[in-house]
């Protein structure tokens, strides 16, 4: 189920603004498989390059909008390829880091701090359009990600492409074995991260269906602590809007050893999306 009321979206956005401020965000890379494992980085780079080359047919340099840019794991590859990138994030500290890392690309980078939906609304108002919208490890942070995607599609120009990566496949669409493997590999990593008792209490509470508005942990990775992200609903939505949409399924987990095992076994628990306006 996708939550669509704007109050829920605002609560999640505020939780993210706090969680990704510099004091709270020390362990981001440690917990971000797509940033720490080279196999996933390579996979993302191939998808990004395909999108970039396709966009070059219509615009040079391509204009890219990076939503939930963080400190730039998606922004910097596009800057390196030669794109002009607008990076949006609700956490000012993340954008400052991104600006520092992107200093070689000078005026090719623009940043906007704020809730991505509100920023997109203002872009629509001023009739800004992009060749590529990328949302890396981001959709699961947005309670109403389908409404969000619908909005993003409006500010893509002709032949525009939407690229997202690193969201959890909807949990109840995974087989039991896959779900057990995925959860088990997560626990192997999680047990080494501290805060175990409080983490277990939160999990037990959520298993009973109780979520708290004032809990940062319940609202930051909104759909990670619920039922994952609905890949089929996203594909149906894009197809219905006249896009050609491909879902790319793969395995991701935090620990490097289990990442290798899961990939070799062909387990799939995560996905990316490439959708092209046709
Ligand atoms: C998991 S990080 C991903 C960062 C980067 N895209 C990456 O893949 O490494 C999620 C980012 O989304 C930002 N974020 C979460 N909710 C947001 C919202 N409603 N509007 C804008 N940014 C948001 C967070 O501040 C954080 O930097």
From TrEMBL:
A Pfam family found in this protein is: Methyltransf_23
CDD domains this protein is in? Answer: AdoMet_MTases (cd02440)
Positions the record marks as coiled coil are: none
Q: Which InterPro entries did the record assign? A: SAM-dependent_MTases_sf
What's this protein's name? Answer: Methyltransferase domain-containing protein
What is the organism of origin for this protein? Candidatus Uhrbacteria bacterium RIFCSPLOWO2_01_FULL_47_24
């Amino acid at each position: 189920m996708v939550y669509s009321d704007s109050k829920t979206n605002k609560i999640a956005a505020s939780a993210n603004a706090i969680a990704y401020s510099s004091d709270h965000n020390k362990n981001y890379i440690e917990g971000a498989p797509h940033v720490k494992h080279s196999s996933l980085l390579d996979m993302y780079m191939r998808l990004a390059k395909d999108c970039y080359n396709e966009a070059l047919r219509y615009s040079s340099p391509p204009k890219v909008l990076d939503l939930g840019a963080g400190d730039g794991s998606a922004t910097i590859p596009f800057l390196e390829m030669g794109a002009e990138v607008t990076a949006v994030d609700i956490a000012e500290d993340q954008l400052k880091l991104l600006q520092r890392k992107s200093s070689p690309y000078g005026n090719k980078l623009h940043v906007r701090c704020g809730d991505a939906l509100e920023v997109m609304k203002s872009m629509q108002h001023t009739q800004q359009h992009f060749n590529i919208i990328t949302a890396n490890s981001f959709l699961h942070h947005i309670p109403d990600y389908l409404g969000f995607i619908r909005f993003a599609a409006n500010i893509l120009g002709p032949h525009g492409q939407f690229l997202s990566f690193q969201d959890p496949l909807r949990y109840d669409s995974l087989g039991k074995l896959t779900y057990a493997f995925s959860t088990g590999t997560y626990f192997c990593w999680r047990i080494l991260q501290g805060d175990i008792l409080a983490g277990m209490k939160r999990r037990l509470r959520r298993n009973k269906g109780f979520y708290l508005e004032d809990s940062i942990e319940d609202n930051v990775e909104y759909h990670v602590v619920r039922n994952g992200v609905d890949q089929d609903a996203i594909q149906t939505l894009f197809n219905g809007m006249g896009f050609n949409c491909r879902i790319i399924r793969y395995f991701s987990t935090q620990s490097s050893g289990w990442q290798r095992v899961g990939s070799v076994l062909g387990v799939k628990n995560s996905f990316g999306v490439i959708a092209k306006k046709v």
